[in-house]
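ok so I'm stuck.
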Amino acid sequence: MRDNDLKSSNFFDVAKFPLIAFKSTSVQPLGNNQYKLIGNLTMHDIAKPVAMNLLYRSTITKPMMKKDDADFKLHGTINSIDFNMGSKYPSAVISDALTIEAYGEFAKDN
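replied:
not stuck anymore, here's the structure
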């Protein structure tokens, strides 16, 4: 029931807005394998600049491909009201803060 509510027009409205996009504009080193990833996030056809924390975790070698992949963790918080999400509920019921967390591996293109 919760997942269906999140997919509904109350929140993400995936039927009308099936895609969320992020396009980075810069990466700023902060030290200790940490970076500030800055870019534009688009949800519900609304684009807003956001800053996320990016942590380089390690480089791993894929045994089958014999190639190195860089392993990252992304973490940040946005205001859901900025993207017209969850506005039907008072902030006492649902927080306006929406936490984004993602993990990814990136291969060097040869």
